[in-house]
Amino acid sequence: MPYRARRPAGTRPARTRLLLTALLLFTAAAGLGPLGAQRADAASNLVRNPGLEVLDGPSRFPQCFEKSGWGDNDFSFAVTDDAHSGSRAVRIQLTRRADGDRKTMMLENSCAPQVTPDHQYDLSFWYRSSTPDVAFTLFRHDTAQGWVYWTDLKTLPPSAAWTRTEVRTPVIPPNTDRITWGGALYGVGTLTTDDYAMTDATVPAEPDPCATGGTGPECRGRWTVQAADAPVRAIHSVLLHTGKVLLIAGSGNDQDAFRAGTFKTSLFDPATGGYTDIPTPEDFFCAGHVQLPDGRVLVVGGNKDYAAPDGSVGYKGLKSSYVFDPARNTYVRVNDMLAGHWYPSATAMGNGDVVALGGLGEDSSGTVVNEHFSYARNKWLPMGEAKQAWSFWGLYPSMILLQDGRLFYTGSHVFGNGLPGTGASVYDYDAGTISEVPGLRKKDERDQSMSVLLPPAQDQKVLTMGGGHHVVAPDAHRLTDLIDLKAASPQYVPGPDLPQGHYADGSPQTGAQGKVYLSAVILPDGKVLETGGALHTYREDPVFEASLYDPATNTFQAGLATDPVPRTYHSSSTLLPDGRVLSIGDNPGDGSFDQRVSIYQPPYLFRGDRPQITSLASTRWTYGTTQRITVDKPVVKASLIRPAAVTHSSDPNQRYVDLPMTVDGTTIDLSLTSNPNLAPPGWYMLSVVDAGGVPSVSRWVRIGSEGQVAAARVQSFADELKASEPSESGPATSAPGTSAPAQESAHRHHGVKMAEGYDGCDHAYGEISQCVPWSFPKMPRAERCTWLLDKGYGRMKVHGRDRHHLDRDKDGIACGKGDVRRS
Which of 119, 293, 297, 547 is spaced 20 to 30 A from 135 at the CA atom? Predict the structure, then answer.
């Protein structure tokens, strides 16, 4: 038995406090100063399996850690999902103590971190504790004496919330080659620990070339523009479980194509670079879409008609709906919805059903009718079965499914401002209530911002990035806001500002300039690629910039390689199964469309050999089960990523689900959540990641057997928020004395009237696919035509009022020869 198990650590708490005082005096006398006085340079974490995520197969305890302690006490050790990060932590409980302690520390073998004599090390972990009887204890391995108790450096105060504790070791004594350490519980109560870290505080680590200006692909990644353009104006990108990408254009924002009935879809194969034309029955331009549990794609609505040239009537939404079947590469019509929808959202629920809402109806008004697609019945439900809130959510409202089955409206949307409320809310579809969520900054400037349920989905944190609005402010902003939806009273808090990029002429962004139209893609290493965008909501001034957001540190890594193709309005980015990212689309204000395709290779693809998943016991996974895989090298985490269905900076179904691991050599057992609300049924990309952050190529697995439904609610935070029965204008009480049938009739036939210029464009000029800004940048009126001509607009017919004074010679042609002032 190791000496550690016999020492009377913590038998007399007063002795421990005296020892701590003596140690602090010793370190001060040695010129070491208190912890934190000497800031160590960034260094590698020397702890193996620091997050306790990987379990050892035989012991079912975190790999490289052990249950330790001594004395007369009643205790228990448990691996719990009540973790600081990830899915696992270790909880120790003492229910009776005469003497001794219990602790979780690194194994006394090659798992114990190596040390160098005369160095010092910073040690830390996160903990929760119900008792003050916890000591930060250390042991060392003496090359002559073996393992010996070294010291206690700190007592830890009780903490109900997760708290980080850190110590700096004394100078490592001679003949010491390894140490092991952790929290020792020596009183009745509980101690839960997670996320251990150890760095050398004496000698800076080798400089990270990526942190010191490195420009290689291992630091910045690499973009490649494909030789062949896409054959369609890709407005929508959907990754299929076949590995191919469905590129939906419909009419592609081209009114001539609409008049001709020329609607397009193409299937892109990233493996070959080839395209397959797909017959397209209606105009799916600006439809909604979502993956169904069996891998088919539900397409929601689309474009019934373009807006009138003079802007008197807006776009109109289709009631029709189709399912794309990857097995046959065909669209199959299902029954019509209750109302038309142009720019709707569609969210997959835990039972495989889909809730769709928002957008414009058949009469161009804002749709207030919810739609419910039953997966089991393969149909849209009739009024009376589809539950209604009679609320207008806007266009492409970002609606993310929470682990309790409710929907979180993040505040990200397309077009429009002035919607009531705080800008974000929790919508209980079953109960019909809307609960306001505070804290979102600039709620009326979130046009084509993007929101992401951050990895892992189990943490229930959402980041909302960027956005703008042409009426409220001239430029897009760079704000990000973060919310923890597992908090007792969830509210947005400020996140780090978006990194700034440069414009086409090479000039840098300055001040508060940010971007709209950005894309955010969850990667298999648990980070989020943020790329593309523009300064203005009228589809001009692309921003060339890309960064990586790390949820673990709440920071952006700026300075990545940038897509050489502008990516503004109608652009999208999609994770591919091999870990690359596809970016496509750009529809500037002059009505043109860039059909070049870019592929991004993230830095992790340049950092050594990739691990491989060599076998899967099954590709059909049932909730709450353990699934066995084998790999060819050690890995530290595994995840499932739901394939993309993205358009207009919106993919509310994007998510990364952590898979806790139990490891026995190259055999790994993965634990799948029992809650379908965390991982709605369907096909997912399974990947593993090694200690260097390098992911495997993904393997496809289908989650959820037929007939499985979502579990009961597992959290109740929204019940604490102020909820109300919503009316058509938002979360307010319905008008008294109005019957439900009367409300139904009124809302179905009289949606919300959209403000003129809601899309940032003045359609009194030129073609409907063009976007003459509703609000111009600050400049003399006489220079507006010069500005437009420089951006490729050309001469434009005036259909109505010349509110921008572009037809100075009154010949009915805006920016004609007599209207242009040239310097």
Answer: 119
